[in-house]
């Protein structure tokens, strides 16, 4: 298999969790339309400061997952059906995690891996809020418009939840500033909590941007299915050739998920850190102070 590999900054970052670097954001991409496949990696993945296990996972995900999938689609003569397989991302993610697991580390710190171990449906649904919003499972492909409307409803609910979280976080910030300005709480006391609120709000606002992009993608796909080209696509999705190919994908996914579950079951369990006896439950303290002030000085909160 010939594959062209290039680099492009996608804004990838890494979260350090007790020395374990977990990728946050997009690490790579395989061009759905190109053949031979074109794989693009974020340069940070290739950095000498990043653990080789991350590179192992990303390369397996893109090359043995998406790129090989592209070749198999062409071989099965279903490569004209672009960006419709939810199983594509499920398969690639499983391949990356299994390869990493076979090399000695099951990425249980990764939320998507834990979702996959729970069920492929839990993973698939999570993809509706990001780049996989237009992906259709083999079951959904029988009624694509109805399935995409379900995706759209889930995106709307997720957006409402994100806006609610932002509002509650901003309320917490207001409460803290009240404790400082009116009740003389030392500004250094809640500096960390204010920083946490700012980070959380920024994260949820990024989520809103992703959800808006997902909504636009689903709406565009709905327009496609309503068009003359969409009629041709619906016929392709209901064809025996497509069903046979998609069924084969499901079989691969079942086997890979079983292997990932076995690797996870045999992986050494990370020891839980001992509680810090000097840690102060500051958020509980803020909550108690605010409730007490609301009760004793309701005029402060008009």
Summarize, please:
This protein is mostly helical and 302 residues long. It has helices spanning 52-75, 86-102, 111-118, 120-127, 144-181, 191-225, 228-237, 240-266, 282-296; strands spanning 4-7, 13-17, 20-24, 28-30, 38-41.
SSE topology sketch:
Elements: E1 4-7, E2 13-17, E3 20-24, E4 28-30, E5 38-41, H1 52-75, H2 86-102, H3 111-118, H4 120-127, H5 144-181, H6 191-225, H7 228-237, H8 240-266, H9 282-296
Parallel strand pairs: 1-5
Antiparallel strand pairs: 2-3, 4-5
Protein model, in words:
The chain is mostly helical and 302 residues long. Helix content is 60%, strand content 7%. Helix 1 crosses helix 2. The termini are far apart. The model has no long low-confidence stretch (mean pLDDT 84).
Strand order of the largest sheet: 1-5-4
DSSP helical segment count: 9
Computed over alpha carbons, the radius of gyration is 23 Å
Kindly state the number of beta strands: 5
Low-confidence region ranges: none
Order of helices and strands: EEEEEHHHHHHHHH
Overall pLDDT level: 84
Shape: globular
Q: Tell me the strand percentage band.
A: 5-15%
């Amino acid at each position: 298999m010939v594959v062209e590999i290039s680099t492009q900054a996608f804004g990838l970052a890494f979260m350090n969790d007790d020395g374990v670097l977990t990728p946050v954001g997009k690490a790579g991409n395989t061009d759905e339309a190109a053949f031979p496949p074109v794989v693009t990696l974020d340069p940070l993945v290739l950095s000498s400061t990043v653990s080789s296990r991350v590179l192992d996972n990303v390369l397996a995900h893109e090359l043995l997952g998406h790129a090989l999938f592209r070749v198999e689609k062409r071989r099965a003569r279903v490569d004209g059906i672009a960006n419709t397989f939810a199983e594509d991302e499920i398969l690639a993610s499983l391949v990356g995690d299994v390869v990493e697991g076979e090399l000695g580390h099951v990425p249980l710190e990764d939320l998507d891996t834990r979702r996959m171990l729970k069920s492929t449906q839990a993973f698939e649904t999570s993809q509706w809020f990001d780049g996989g919003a237009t992906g259709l499972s083999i079951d959904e492909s029988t009624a694509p418009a109805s399935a995409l409307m379900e995706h759209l409803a889930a995106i709307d609910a997720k957006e409402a939840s994100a806006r609610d979280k932002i509002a509650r976080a901003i309320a917490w910030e207001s409460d803290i500033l009240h404790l400082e300005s009116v009740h003389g709480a030392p500004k250094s006391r809640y500096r960390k909590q204010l920083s946490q609120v700012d980070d959380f709000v920024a994260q949820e606002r990024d989520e809103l941007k992703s959800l808006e992009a997902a909504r636009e993608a689903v709406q565009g796909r709905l327009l496609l299915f309503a068009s003359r080209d969409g009629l041709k696509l619906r016929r392709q999705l209901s064809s025996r050739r497509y069903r046979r190919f998609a069924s084969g994908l499901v079989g691969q996914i079942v086997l890979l998920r079983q292997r990932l579950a076995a690797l996870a079951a045999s992986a050494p369990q990370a020891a839980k850190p001992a509680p810090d006896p000097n840690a102060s439950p500051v958020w509980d303290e803020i909550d108690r102070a605010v409730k007490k002030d609301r009760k004793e000085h309701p005029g402060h909160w008009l």
